[in-house]
Amino acid sequence: MEAPVCLELYKKMKTKETNTLIEQIISFLKEYSTVHKLISQNHIEFTIDKSILAIASEHITKEPELNASLITITATDERELNNSYVIYAVFSLRKINHLLTLKATIDKSNPSYPAISTKITYANWHEREIHDLFGIIPEGIELSPLILHRDWHPGKNFPMRRDFPKDKEVPITDHELEFQEPHGEGLHQIAVGPIHAGIIEPGHLRFSALGEEIHKFDVQLFYTHKGIEKMLEGKTIIEALTLAEHTCGMCSYSHSTAFCIAIESLGNISIPPRALFIRTLCLELERLGSHMADLFSICSAGGFGFASVHAARLREIIMRSIYKLTGSRFFRGLNIIGGLQKNIPDKVLDSLAQQLLLFKSDFKELEKLILSTDSLLDRLELTGFLSDEQAISLGLVGPGARGSGINIDVRRDNPYLAYKRYKINVPVYTTGDALARTQVRIDEVNESLRLIKELIEDLPDGEVLTEQKSYSQYTPALGIIESPKGELVHWVMLDKENKIFRHHIRSASYINWRGVAQATMGKNIIPDGPLVNKSFNLCYACVDR
Amino acid sequence: MLDILKMWITKGDFTETPPNIRDLDINNWQKDLSRINNLDKKIKNALSRSLAVRHLDLGSCNAEEAELIALSNPFYDISRFGIEFTASPRHADVLAVTGPVTRHLKIAMERTYNAMPNPKIVIAIGDGACNGSIYEKTYACLGRVDQFLPVDFYIPGDPPTPEEIIKGFLVCKMFLANKEEKKWIRKMDS
């Protein structure tokens, strides 16, 4: 689409203020590219040459007026279409609720491009993932294996290339993990995992300690990597929805909603208002459940058994109300493209409101207990400190970022579903320690309780499912929502038979793991390690996929 | 309709009666498990009163983990049945595995299993471990657990609710004790 046409479309849709900003974007990206395409109402795509990808990305994120941040980088193997790989770098312009994609084609004979992470450091994992799975080389960064472990022997096997058979096995060899070993007098290493002592997911943690103090912290993740993105290839939309839902248990509903939002934007489906409200309500319920689990973990890692049992009890109450509401303790099977599988009667929702009133008074007790017990506060204060500068340079999201004074929340910045109609108060704490992250969660629970109450009061009547229409093909679509752990992104592209061509999942935990590593390396002692980890309480299943 | 009636009359009813735990012939069931010798039987009989469980995640979607954690909350309080979660496989009688086996965890799985003292009981919890669930076989996902470990008990579900998991553990205990403990079953039914 030509620039003038593009602008005119915007003028119809946006306010004056936004228009001038979009004009600015187009004018300053003009030196890089003249080809733009309007993908959806608030998503613009620029096709640029691969050599200037990094420079343009830096330009966008450094522009103070845009307040832009890099959401994800993903690659597609489009060799069967146009003999090339394609890199998509997606930016969120938080100030004006807009998305911007930079698209660069990479010739198949020379699959390499100058790495974006030389300019934006937190893109490092994205680009190493692209190298592992597609064999595209981002030039200028160290390419140690990330997703595939060291016994994979990269070189010929790139699993996400479309000509790699789905069930091809690569032999497993017993290998040592490689970490940069610190040198110095009195330094010793403590290896933890991949099988941990508690009931948690697998991951290898390596502490280098000087006496008690943690000197260096390394982590080897992706033990539960199942290749879900490869499984999703060639699946129909309904099959893909079930798989997306099974990416993670704790954030199950967030994943299915993000996927639905992406597909619905491709089909221009507007779902009925009642479905909108119920989806929003379920997302908030999931947040309540997840935050109670987080508080349980924080209290038990802090050695405060009474409060942790209290939190576990409250979590079970939420899980049981979810079961009453949807017939599954993890919202499985509730979402479908175009709305909901089944309507939830008003009677059930009223009893939920009653239940939550009791929950609220119980939660007040827990809140008082956590914030007034000196032994726990002593563990939490100044533990796992992360400054706002560090958090920005790591691109953190969710409660981890809000505990370090970064004021972001997708529900408020890029509102979706019924969040557009409500004012969301975002709790922000600037102390940056484990206590701040705990306080953020406590405040968010109270905010969610308020939202659920208002949602039930304002709930409209009517249908919960619309008919499905046709979908646009080979067009990238994004579903971005605020999962309990932070910003969650589903990037979907359909092929000509309306099957999944490429589906990329970037969870909040994927971003925040680097925050955990950084926070652990502050002035902490070894027993604080689990507490710092639990103060973020990230999913491994979300990260590994 | 006539065809169906004819088939029904000539061939009989195909519907199986659901298994009732109370009517199971335990001695016959034990014969099938040739692995269990007499000494094992005695040890297992002793174990049946207290199970030390080691949880092993082989690539699940953490829903099963959430439910296993929920077992220790005041609603379920699994320790009243004499079931405890241990920190190390060396202290465990039972290995509770969840999720389809991933490529990266295969070696860890073998090491964990080998570290357990004999006799080893393996329980597969959740659809992922029991039958691979909806996860297709890929370069990184190898599928159901019983391809690699001898699984003794299956607790299916997506994920199984805490009640179902407790029921599974109790049935496991009952079989190990080699006698029917009807009072537990009555408790679970009510």
Descriptive notes:
- The complex is a heterodimer of chains A (545) and B (190).
- Chain A has 545 residues and is α+β, with helices and mostly antiparallel strands.
- Chain A is 43% helix and 18% strand.
- Chain A contains 19 helices and 15 strands.
- In chain A, helix 16 (434-458) packs parallel to helix 18 (528-536).
- Chain B has helices spanning 2-11, 26-32, 38-47, 63-70, 106-115, 127-131, 162-177, 182-189; strands at residues 51-57, 83-85, 94-98, 101-102, 121-125, 141-143, 153-155.
- Chain B has a single domain, classed as Rossmann fold.
- Chain B has 8 helices and 7 strands.
- Chain B starts with a helix and ends with a helix.
- The chains are: A alpha+beta (545), B alpha/beta (190).
- Chains A and B meet through helix 6, helix 10 and helix 19 of A and strand 1, helix 4 and helix 5 of B.
Sum up the structure in keywords:
heterodimer; A: 545 residues; alpha+beta; Beta Polymerase, domain 2; Cytochrome-c3 Hydrogenase, chain B; five-stranded mixed β-sheet; three-stranded antiparallel β-sheet; globular; B: 190 residues; alpha/beta; Rossmann fold; five-stranded parallel β-sheet; two-stranded antiparallel sheet; 8 helices
Write the layout of secondary structure elements.
The complex is a heterodimer of chains A (545) and B (190).
Chain A: H1 3-13, H2 16-28, E1 35-40, E2 43-47, H3 53-62, E3 68-78, H4 79-82, E4 84-93, E5 98-107, E6 112-114, H5 124-134, E7 137-139, E8 187-192, E9 204-210, E10 213-220, H6 228-232, H7 237-245, H8 252-267, H9 273-301, H10 305-326, E11 335-336, E12 339-340, H11 346-372, H12 374-380, H13 388-394, H14 398-402, H15 410-413, H16 434-458, E13 477-483, E14 486-494, E15 500-506, H17 508-520, H18 528-536, H19 540-544
Parallel strand pairs in A: 2-5, 6-7
Antiparallel strand pairs in A: 1-2, 3-4, 4-5, 8-9, 9-10, 11-12, 13-14, 14-15
Helix pairs in contact in A: 1-2, 7-8, 9-10, 9-16, 9-18, 10-11, 11-16, 16-18, 17-18
Chain B: H1 2-11, H2 26-32, H3 38-47, E1 51-57, H4 63-70, E2 83-85, E3 94-98, E4 101-102, H5 106-115, E5 121-125, H6 127-131, E6 141-143, E7 153-155, H7 162-177, H8 182-189
Parallel strand pairs in B: 1-2, 1-3, 3-5, 5-7
Antiparallel strand pairs in B: 4-6
